[in-house]
Amino acid sequence: MAPPRLRPPPAPLSAFTTIDLVLLSHDHFDHVHPDDVLALGNSVRWFVPLGMAPFLTGLGVDPDRVTEMDWWQTQAVEVEVNVRGKGRVTKTLTVACAPAQHWSARSVASNQSLWASFVVKGEKNSFYHCGDTGYSRELFQSIGRAFGPITLAAIPIGAYCPKWHLSNQHVCPEGEKAPPSQTRLAISSRPPFHQMRT
């Protein structure tokens, strides 16, 4: 059950040629929609914070396709990738679950499942999926020490007004709230985003 979307997704799932892994940071409606879960189903591997597996399995996803993770846990996963001149090659990635400064809820009962961010590390590069989080220098430093350096980071900016209420849950784009270089994430590239699915 979810509220109806007010606008279509920026890109339909059919626009993506291959999806191997789905990283769900938390259970808010703008981050996971039942229609998307039904469309992807067992064709992908799902990595979710503790407590989110029942939502997916309740929509028909095989429990073997879902990996629930606690903060600081890592999991190796094999994926097939296209390599120029070699065709499809199996590579091992490490998916790491990291903390986020946020919360979870799909009903009036809050925090029935964990919320998280994820780092996916390959042989040479890594990707940081921040999910939703408020700015915390200590948080980013801890993630950087554990899983850095980060090649590409998706750090959300948006839904931070009114600041007195939401800036602790969503990163602001300006000033002291933007993650500075001293966070030790050592990010090579970080395009700003905030996914709004509703």
Walkthrough of the structure:
This protein is of the alpha/beta class and 198 residues long. It has a single domain, classed as 4-Layer Sandwich (Metallo-beta-lactamase, Chain A). It contains 4 helices and 9 strands. It has helices at 34-40, 53-57, 137-147, 163-166, and strands at residues 21-23, 45-49, 66-69, 74-83, 87-98, 117-121, 126-129, 152-156, 192-193. Strands 4-5-6-7-8-9 form a 6-stranded mixed β-sheet, with no helix packed on it. A 3-stranded parallel β-sheet has the order 1-2-3. Strand 8, helix 4 and strand 9 form a beta-alpha-beta unit. The longest helix has 11 residues, at 137-147. It is globular and about 50 Å long.
Amino- and carboxy-terminal Cα gap:
13 Å
Count of distinct strands: 9
> What is the top-level CATH class?
Alpha Beta
Name the quaternary structure. single chain
- Shape label: globular
The succession of helices and strands, N to C, reads EHEHEEEEEHEHE
**Main beta sheet:** 6 strands, mixed
Which parts are unreliable, with pLDDT below 50 for 5 consecutive residues or more? Answer: 175-180, 194-198
Measured by DSSP, the beta-strand proportion falls in 25-35%
What structural class results from the helix and strand content? Answer: alpha/beta
CATH topology: Metallo-beta-lactamase, Chain A
**Helical percentage:** 10-25%
Provide the domain count.
1
